[in-house]
Amino acid sequence: MTSSYRITLLPGDGIGPEIMAVTVDVLKALGGQMDLSFEFQEALIGGAAIDETGEPLPQETLNRCQDSDAVLLAAIGGYKWDTLPRHQRPETGLLALRSGLGLFANLRPATILPQLIDASSLKREVVEGVDIMVVRELTGGIYFGTPKGIFETETGQKRGVSTMAYTDSEIDRIGKVAFETAQKRRGQLCSVDKANVLEVSQLWRDRMTAMAADYPDVSLSHLYVDNAAMQLIRWPKQFDTIVTGNLFGDILSDAAAMLTGSIGMLPSASLGADGPGVYEPVHGSAPDIAGQDKANPLAQVLSAAMMLRYALDQPTAADRLEKAVIKVLDQGYRTGDIMAENMTLVGCKAMGDALLSALAG
Ligand code: IPM
Ligand code: MG
Questions:
Q1: Could you give the domains of the chain?
Q2: I want to staple 46 with a disulfide (CB 3.0 to 4.6 A). Which of 90, 130, 144, 230 is the partner?
Q3: Distance from the CA of 141 to the center of ligand 2, in angstroms?
Q4: Is 240 helix (H, G, I), strand (E, B) or coil?
Q5: Residue pair 136/244 in contact by the 8 Å Cβ criterion
Q6: Per-residue pLDDT tens for 86-126?
Q7: Whose CA is nearest to atom 9 of ligand 1?
Q8: Model-wide pTM > 0.90
Q9: Best substitution site from 73, 91, 258 to test ligand 1's pocket, by max atoms within 8 Å of Cβ?
Q10: Which residues, at least 6 apart from 69, have a Cβ–Cβ distance to it below 8 Å?
Q11: Which residues does a 6 A CB cutoff place in the pocket of ligand 1?
């Protein structure tokens, strides 16, 4: 029997439409082979939405997302919109999507593939075998805390204010996701905070410590964020699962991504308590190479694999897609960001064609 899924596509800006087009072709081919049928509906977000409607997340887009089994997002943002007032920036649309869908848990795996070890800027012995999952809190912390704004003081100075705040229930729900994630992995959870300075982090640490009693099979450790940044670069293999707040997670997940050679390879899943999740690459919209057929579509394709696995419960299809990615790398195909000696440089579309052949073969 054919399983049918409604997927909302948000191609967004920059390289977004190019990598999304490849991914949709690949999903269609995979669907044909596996008796899965996808009903794709496209919607606007980010700069593309601003140009068309004046706002970065039109209500129509949110409605469509809510009315689907999963959302596949590419990337948002670009130079063109960087100087607009904040409420009209592409990033504001992304944050509104996360909070509108209640996506408080962001899973960002950083796994190094043997084929790409030489693309890492770190030594082989440091990165070989790295397999980290960053669990980033996504709808709280300093991104959303109030008061926020640029205010005028009594002496006429401007004062920029953002507030880093977490309630215990916000910490507990991301903690639960993190402990459960660690349980399914190697049972080690490292909570990252700045409890030596920030009260918000003290509460974070207290709650994580209290929760550990419910998960005797997980060993919990704590690191301050500055040390965590250092340890990630020094000896990343010490990490299994990392849980941290929104801002620290933003920064550390980029660092973890880069261990693997290219941020162009890494997918992510953003999940809520219920309702559709958003699956998107960790990388951004790369406006400098947009429209030039140079983008690496693999993080987007791997995000689709995460979607198949987590949202649609189709692990066999997810495996098949991930195997196709490994196969094209084994065949030597590389986009510019992961290019190495003796490999075959291809563009975005050609990488897509190679994936289609790999799936067919
Ligand atoms: C990310 C991005 C976003 C964030 C930006 C584009 C708002 O850097 O998804 O990591 O800061 O969360
Ligand atoms: Mg980021």
A1: 1-102+273-361 (3.40.718.10), 106-266 (3.40.718.10)
A2: 90
A3: 14
A4: coil
A5: yes
A6: 999 999 999 999 999 999 999 999 999 999 998 889 999 99
A7: 282
A8: yes
A9: 91
A10: 5, 6, 7, 276, 311, 312
A11: 77, 91, 94, 250
